[in-house]
Amino acid sequence: MFDKILIANRGEIALRILRACKELGILTVAVHSTADADAMHVRLADESVCVGPPPSKDSYLNVPALLAACEITGADAVHPGYGFLSENARFAEILADHNLHFIGPKAEHIRLMGDKIEAKKTAKRLGIPVVPGSDGAVMPDQDAMAIAKAIGFPVLVKAAAGGGGRGMKVAHTEADLALALTTAANEAKSAFGDASVYLEKYLQKPRHIEIQVLGDGRGGAIHLGERDCSLQRRHQKVWEEGPSPVLDAASRAKIGETVAKAMREMKYLGVGTVEFLYEDGEFYFIEMNTRIQVEHPVTEMITGIDLVLEQIRIAAGGDLPMQQSEVAITGHSIECRVNAENPVSFRPSPGRIQQYHPPGGLGVRIDSAVYQGYVIPPYYDSLVGKLIVHGKTRVECLMRLRRALDEMVVDGIETTLPLFRALVREPAIIDGDYHIHWLEQYLAGQQPG
Ligand code: MV4
């Protein structure tokens, strides 16, 4: 097991990782920019190192500074959290070159899943259902029109190096296709330095359902159920829940086992999330995330498994915490990402938190690194904290969420709490009857279809 872990992240996930380390008896090193000197994880860590000025590229992405911090403190492992360097294969390799453990998957798997075309080819080869589309990148000399006609309009043009919605263009008709291809390729070239694009059948109103997996890197893997993350705004998840309101046990077992089997064949190491679009009872693989995700607490609440603690144990060579037959989904959990943003315009609202009262009680969890008097800096994401609620049923969970939202106080900055207080009372949400475009239609004042 590791002796000292450097946490190469900030905010709530840095605190989350620190908590798991302390429970494992592992010493912790916090790194911070000059803007985060008063951050909670810095105060609670055994040691802390300032790695640079506020801009992420000069601090949390500053690999030489992070390596120096490991050297100074004698850390033997680095936990990247999410975002920043968490899916940077080169960083994982650089750490290995310096005899440091990267708490994450093998670099080859990070690189593989970072290329959306290779990821899809791999998924298909391993028996995971994928969206009908082109066989890899559409090359300039290929007849994209013929491929699109074979798929059937509308089609989606996607950047191979994209992900998270970047570099996507819909073509509803043949006339749209040429422009969509050119636009997507140009955007991909400038955004990712790679103009490669591929085509997929455009699914009109799917849900976003993701499967949590845990692999031991030696051919063992288990799936831990799903999270429904369909409520998104501009590709930012807002509300996540598990189990999905639309999946039954048979569907869950089928897709879960398909994914777990694929992870066993890959000899996948650590935590991973396989993302699907779900429409008319069918799953369609779109991406795989090779990091711990923001919404991991939803799975922790319904399985009782501490995903970050297991991630660390497995990275140190440990075994999976249980057999697949022992994984049990109990109750229902919903997570709301409370941001320091205006709840209507979503304009960021950094600043000092004058009054802070987090809700409590049975089945209520707050993953946050803020405190009364804390100043939310303008340099990073606007997450104030994640309100995660658990109940025996979805109805009980919604009732508890409604009560917890009404109890929560964050004064001095604007937050998206009013949005959640409205959503938890919205009939379609109460019925679990929504899709990936529902929230943006709701926010636009439309009657979501
Ligand atoms: C799609 C799609 C419809 N059809 N692929 C968006 C980001 C990336 N995860 C893939 N995305 C999508 N891929 C096909 N063939 C619709 C989306 C999409 C989306 C997916 C999940 C959650 C929210 C979304 C919002 C807009 C578009």
Structure description:
The protein has 449 residues and is an alpha+beta fold. It has three domains: 4-103, 3-Layer(aba) Sandwich (Rossmann fold); 132-201, ATP-grasp fold, A domain (Dna Ligase, domain 1); 207-443, 2-Layer Sandwich (D-amino Acid Aminotransferase, Chain A, domain 1), CATH 3.30.470.20. It is built from 15 helices and 20 strands. The chain has helices spanning 11-23, 40-44, 63-73, 89-97, 107-114, 116-125, 144-151, 174-192, 249-266, 296-303, 307-315, 394-407, 417-423, 427-430, 438-443; strands at 4-7, 27-33, 47-52, 77-79, 101-102, 155-163, 166-171, 197-201, 207-216, 221-233, 236-242, 269-279, 282-289, 332-339, 351-352, 355-357, 364-368, 375-376, 383-391, 409-411. The strands form five sheets. An eight-stranded antiparallel beta sheet has the order 13-12-9-10-11-14-19-17, with helices on both faces. Helix 4 links the parallel strand 4 and strand 5 (101-102). Helix 4 runs antiparallel to helix 5. The chain is globular and about 60 Å long. The model has no long low-confidence stretch (mean pLDDT 96). The structure holds ligand MV4. The site of ligand MV4 has 15 residues, from strand 8 and strand 13.
Low-confidence stretches: none
CATH topology call of the largest domain: D-amino Acid Aminotransferase, Chain A, domain 1
The first-level CATH class of the largest domain is given as Alpha Beta
How many β-strand runs?
A: 20
Q: What is the arithmetic mean of pLDDT?
A: 96
Structure in a nutshell:
The chain has 449 residues and is of the alpha+beta class. The radius of gyration is 22 Å and the shape is globular.
